[in-house]
Design brief:
The complex is a heterodimer.
Chain A lengths: L1 H7 L1 H18 L8 H6 L11 H11 L5 H13 L1 H18 L4 E2 L20 H33 L2 H7 L1 H18 L3 H10 L1 H11 L3 H8 L8 H10 L5 E3 L5 H10 L5 E3 L3 H8 L37 H25 L1
Helix pairs in contact in A: 4-6, 5-6, 7-16, 8-9, 8-10, 9-11, 11-14, 14-15
Chain B lengths: L2 H11 L3 H23 L2 H17 L9 H22 L5 H4 L2 H4 L2 E2 L8 H19 L3 H12 L4 H8 L3 H21 L14
Helix pairs in contact in B: 1-2, 2-3, 2-4, 3-4, 4-9, 8-10, 9-10
Classes of the chains: A mainly alpha, B mainly alpha.
Chain lengths: 346, 200
């Protein structure tokens, strides 16, 4: 609105300005200085530009001959009919001329370097090279590392003894039972897996019990005093029923496995989390009270932890392979993006 | 870049200080003037110009072709920005500025030997007024108007020095000129003799 009001009567301001200039020139004829700065200072233009910024930009580019032919023709046409535009161009022209007329300032001293004290030049690897190749190589290395980690885990899985294999093939477990069972009973830390193995293979219980027996007393001795009162009935029954250790068998579904194991292993008591009849049948076999078995895992009724073992998942040292792989791929991607970016910049 | 300049740059990259000093002599006046117009202080400008050449020599191996002048002025521009930032953080008063004004004033070249002392004084006064106007511009507009109108750089080279694009250079230059024109028209920075409201 304000701009429109000003534009609607452009002659008013200009007339008063030019009148003022005339008066000024009459009064101060001796004070006037020559040159672009002086003409700018003696200018009778209003102090604030009335033009929109776009027109200012056009005028500035026009001064430097940076407009296209079409833009130039269009602007010159406007200049012919718009006195305000022409006045602003004149002001800009004077300003630029005043700046160009600034004389050079002489440096107070020379800035040449003294060869004796000049700093040593640094030698850098180009940043582009570092960004592209460095991140690419680092990414490749991480991908390789992740591959090796994954392959290593695969080898472990293939070479793993009973606990892991039991999940896959009960039949295989049955055949490997005697040899693998001790490891299950003592060394294995994967109690849930063992429980699964037990429930999956009725034959295995029978095969495993004798083999586990020699190991069981030692384990029971270690854990004997630590009987938990949280499961008092079960713990009491277990204390009565077992003799030298325990192999966990989930006999709820397959009581015959527990019974067979109890009957076969005199020293190898079997603890079950099964229902009462099954447990009683297992306990009624042999019951020399030489050890205790505790069941501390209240969350999983099918699982009984062996004493002296820790039911923690297998720890993986370092980054997981998936994360390593992701970081490697990200680094390779970064290198490619940087390469494309620097190529685009030229 | 001329062949001679190219040769000097390559020799400087090999650690030849004398060759680099040839480049210093070639550009020291322009670099110093850029610093002086940006900072408005002769002593600070000399320090920044010296720092610029030291930094240029130390990092000469980073220069990978193109225009050496643009590369050098980019270093000078960044050094000026650093000096201005440091000045904002730790405002200080120059000791020389507290003394005699004539001692603190920079030494200008004398373009016309036939110039009278009055004319010379007037020219210096005008120059100082324009410098005060430049100092009122925002830094990013100031550097563009100095490079364009004082140093005579082309738009493309200004864009290279300031690490911006052509559109930004054009708009900053336009705003800087318009603002400077308004400042000078206001006349407050001008010597009293040149103001409109001055009664003779």
């Amino acid at each position: 609105m304000r701009l429109q009001a000003r534009r609607s009567k452009p002659w008013e301001g200009r007339r008063s300005d030019s009148a003022l200039a005339e008066t000024q020139s009459e009064r101060c004829a001796t004070c006037r200085v020559d040159g672009p700065a002086a003409t700018l200072m003696n200018s009778s233009q209003p102090q604030r530009s009335k033009l929109p910024e776009r027109d200012e930009a056009l005028l500035s580019a026009y001064l430097d001959k940076q407009l296209s032919a079409a833009e130039q023709v269009s602007l010159e046409r406007r200049l012919a009919v718009e006195p305000i535009l022409r006045a602003e161009l004149d002001g800009l022209h004077r300003t630029a001329a005043a700046l160009r007329s600034l004389e050079q300032v002489r440096p107070p001293r020379s800035f040449t370097l003294d060869p004796a004290t000049a700093p040593k030049p640094r030698f850098f690897l180009p940043r582009t090279w570092v960004m592209q190749m460095g991140s690419g190589f680092a990414g490749l290395a991480l991908v390789l590392l992740a591959t090796v980690q994954m392959l290593g885990m695969g080898t472990l899985a293939v070479g793993a003894p009973a606990p892991m294999a039991a999940k896959e093939s009960p039949t295989t477990q049955a055949t490997q039972g005697p040899a693998a069972a001790p490891m299950m009973a003592v060394a294995s830390t994967a109690a849930p897996t063992m429980a699964v193995a037990s429930t999956a293979a009725p034959m295995m219980g029978a095969a495993a019990a004798p083999a586990a027996a020699p190991m069981a007393p030692a384990a029971a001795r270690e854990a004997g005093p630590v009987a938990q009162p949280t499961q008092e009935p079960t713990a009491a029954m277990v204390a009565e029923a077992t003799t030298g250790g325990a192999v966990s068998v989930t006999a709820a579904d397959r009581p015959e496995a527990a019974a067979a194991a109890a009957a076969d292993g005199g020293a190898g008591g079997i603890v079950t989390n099964a229902s009462a009849p099954a447990r009683e049948s297992a306990a009624s076999g042999v019951a020399p009270p030489s050890g205790a078995v505790q069941s501390t895992d209240t969350s999983s009724p099918d699982t009984v932890r062996l004493p002296g073992t820790q039911a923690e998942p297998r720890r993986v040292v370092g980054l997981p392979p998936g994360l390593t792989l992701a970081i490697g791929v990200a680094l390779i991607g970064l290198g490619v993006i940087w390469s494309l970016y620097s190529r685009r910049r030229g | 870049m001329t062949n001679e300049e190219q040769r000097l740059v390559e020799a400087g990259q090999q650690g030849d200080v004398e060759a680099f000093n040839q480049l210093v002599k070639l550009y020291e006046v322009r670099v110093y003037n850029l610093c002086y117009r940006m900072l408005g202080d002769a002593d600070a400008a000399a320090d920044v110009a010296q720092d610029t050449f030291i930094a240029a020599y130390r990092n000469l191996s980073r220069f990978r072709g193109g225009m050496f002048r643009s590369w050098l002025f980019r270093i000078a521009t960044n050094a000026c920005y650093d000096a201005l930032r440091a000045r904002k953080r730790r405002p200080s008063v120059s000791l020389s500025a507290m003394g005699d004004a004539d001692d603190a004033a920079p030494a200008f070249d004398l373009p016309d030997l036939g110039e009278t002392p009055d004319e010379r004084a007037l020219r210096h006064e005008l120059s100082a007024a324009i410098q005060r106007g430049i100092a009122q511009l925002p830094e990013e507009q100031r550097i563009v108007v100095i490079l364009s109108d004082v140093q005579g750089f082309a738009y493309e080279e200004i864009a290279e020095v300031t690490s911006t694009n052509l559109g930004t250079v054009k708009s900053r230059l336009s705003r800087a000129r318009a603002r400077l024109r308004d400042i000078l028209r206001a006349g407050e920075l001008l010597p009293a003799k040149f103001r409109h409201d001055d009664v003779c």
